[in-house]
Amino acid sequence: LLKYYDSFPQNRSASTWRRLAEEFPGEPRAGVANYRLAQLAAQRGQVDQAAQLAQTALASLAPACNGQPVSAESGLAGLFQRAPGVPSRQYLREVADQAAIMQWLIRVNRILDDPVSAEAFAALADLDPHRQSRREYRERVLHLAERYAETTLADNFALALAMSYADDVERVRFLLDIRDIPGSDASIQANYELGCLALRLSHVPALAGQLRQPQTYFRLVGFEAIENPWSRRSAEHLSRLHTQASRP
Question: Which candidate, 9, 55, 226, 243, has a CA 20 to 30 Å from the CA of 131?
Fold first, then answer.
């Protein structure tokens, strides 16, 4: 069974992404291309270049994410077409969110100030859960977590490990540990992920007494003193939950 995914670019695709970014500067498809190039730069350890490309990507994606129409084009635009249309706003928002997360991780972990953290960031960016079996992927994450345990990204490797569990109960238990790490940037995403899980797991017996209401986790994300990439999505979830609770 073949499965296609476009969330993790390969080096051989770099020339195509560059051409796309050059042919459609400032357009959403160029934003996607620049983010894929940012991922490739991060995997190579070129963190400064990755940060710049992520910023360029966000500038191109912002208009479409904020409601401007997305137009169709011929040629390379076909790479992004969903027959018979163009990339959905949801897809563009997801790419923009990932670009924002990359920028945020680089900034709050001060990756550019520490060569070892930059090396750890490259290793984190190179983690592709689709490339190997779940067990092999988890073993690799564990190895990297031990190797970079003294860097600012130690909590982010712990988060990657938590997210590698397909079993929701196991994932929740790992995320609950991460959210309690003092001063951890990964704890912010852990709260967001717990909120999403709580939306559908509130009645699972194995989690009785462990998982709170989703509003609790989404509010914690919004109450963070530092601006973060999950605050908007948390606010959207809270708004929907409030609307549902207000219905007769």
Answer: 55
CA 68 to chain CA centroid, Å, is: 23
Q: How many Å apart are CA 75 and CA 69, to the nearest integer?
A: 19
E strands, 172-218, in order: none
The whole-model pTM stands at 0.86
pLDDT tens readout for residues 183-194: 789 999 999 999
Burial environment of residue 8 by CB neighbours within 10 A (0 to 12, 13 to 18, 19 or more): middle
pLDDT in tens, 21-37: 999 888 888 999 999 99
Residues whose CB falls within 8 Å of the CB of residue 68, separated by 6 or more in sequence, listed in order? none
Q: How far apart are CA 170 and CA 167, in angstroms?
A: 5
Contact 207, 201 (CB under 8 A): yes
3-state secondary structure of 34: helix
